[in-house]
Write a structure and sequence with these properties.
By secondary structure, the protein is of the alpha+beta class. The chain has 2 helices and 4 strands; from the N terminus they run ββββαα.
């Protein structure tokens, strides 16, 4: 095959052009890919690997660990906000506190309009 074209070893007469990433398809024998890629038109890395610096490398799990940590911390923040935001109301609200709260809410609504 010519460079930038790929075909499968089971059906070598069906030829595909590598349009998106032409460097992955070196041409030559059917099923041949650069950088350890696999699949139709050399589009993916094998399971457990990721594309980096023109080759497939083993995943170290760092990204998924950061993702789990972010989800865990976000869940904790949401639960904390719910807990502290829904504390029992005070029974000793003064007229001054209620008036200042009402005034600030009216001011905020007026600014939004």
């Amino acid at each position: 095959l010519a460079e930038h074209f790929w075909s499968n070893t089971e059906d070598p007469l069906r030829v595909y052009m590598c349009k998106i990433d032409q460097e992955g398809c070196p041409g030559g024998a059917p099923g041949r890919c650069n950088g350890g890629r696999i699949g139709r038109v050399c589009a993916v890395c094998p399971e457990g690997q990721a594309w980096s610096d023109d080759k497939c490398i083993d995943c170290d799990g760092g990204f998924s660990a950061m993702l789990y940590l972010a989800v865990f911390l976000s869940t904790g923040a949401i639960c904390g906000a719910y807990y502290f935001g829904n504390s029992p109301p005070r029974a000793n609200v003064t007229v001054a506190t209620a008036g200042s709260t009402l005034s600030s809410q009216i001011l905020t609504i007026t600014q939004l309009l």
